[in-house]
Write a structure and sequence with these properties.
Layout: H1 4-18, H2 32-58, H3 60-78, H4 84-107, H5 114-118, H6 122-130, H7 135-157, H8 161-169, H9 176-186, H10 189-208, H11 215-244
Helix pairs in contact: 1-10, 2-3, 2-4, 2-11, 3-4, 4-7, 6-7, 7-10, 7-11, 9-11, 10-11
């Protein structure tokens, strides 16, 4: 069982240190547009978890083809001056959606392919940034990818890759014993230490960029910080399931 008191007391210093970077503590005025950029990026990171995940498992082709709809909508919004920000952001989301559809639709049984597939949009993002175009979408995509990389790193460091493969090969009703074994695998000082370090990295990278006024940095931070929310919700749910059983 995870020692939540130990985890909370260990994370507290990280939160206190990270908060020093928060613009609220620096008493700098934050615009509504910046908050919208942060919140919108966070929302778009959570969408694949609650919408794309079940869709791609049951209808992978439909999930893949819907990428065209996201792309079309983003281009329409980009063509209008008043909605360029939303079109730019949605374009970055389209890249994440495409990669997720490919991996979770046909390659989810092999965790070593996860990050390479999720990275398929990197060349386009770099191309956009080199031309100072599409910064909002590019930084959203890169922030989301960074959060994914940190999460995957935790799986590698704590030996959870084998459980990943098992979960992808069994029916949903048979996953509970695997989840329970995975939680037991990380319920030790090493698992908790890795979590603390990686949480600190995500907080540091996410909060430090909130010092800048540019909206693309706020979307980047929103994507990075929302990784903590998604991962945290997942582990809380799994841990509660384990306790109930």
């Amino acid at each position: 069982m995870i020692n939540y008191n130990l985890l909370s007391s260990s994370i507290a210093p990280i939160l206190n240190a990270a908060s020093l970077w928060n613009p609220l503590f620096l008493r700098r005025k934050v615009s509504i547009r910046q908050w919208l950029a942060l919140a919108s990026a966070g929302f778009l990171v959570t969408v694949p978890v609650f919408i794309q995940a079940p869709l791609v498992r049951m209808f992978p082709v439909a999930s893949l083809l819907s990428t065209l709809a996201w792309l079309g909508l983003s281009l329409v919004l980009l063509s209008r001056e008043k909605t360029q920000f939303w079109g730019d952001l949605l374009l970055g989301f389209t890249g994440s959606w495409l990669a997720g559809s490919i991996y979770w639709g046909w390659l989810r049984w092999e965790p070593f392919l996860h990050l390479p597939v999720e990275s398929i949009g990197v060349p386009f993002a770099v191309w956009c940034l080199a031309r100072s175009w599409g910064k909002v979408g590019s930084y959203f995509y890169l922030g989301s990818l960074f959060g994914t990389a940190v999460t995957d790193l935790y799986f590698y460091l704590t030996g959870l890759i084998g459980y990943w493969r098992e979960l992808m090969r069994v029916e949903p009703e048979l996953t509970m014993p695997i989840f329970q074994s995975a939680i037991a695998q990380i319920s030790n000082p090493w698992g908790i230490s890795c979590a603390i370090v990686l949480i600190g990295i995500l907080l540091g990278v996410g909060l430090v960029h909130l010092r800048f006024k540019d909206l693309h940095w706020w979307t980047f931070s929103g994507a990075v910080l929302s990784t903590l929310l998604v991962d945290g919700l997942f582990w809380v749910v799994v841990s509660n399931i384990r306790l109930d059983n």
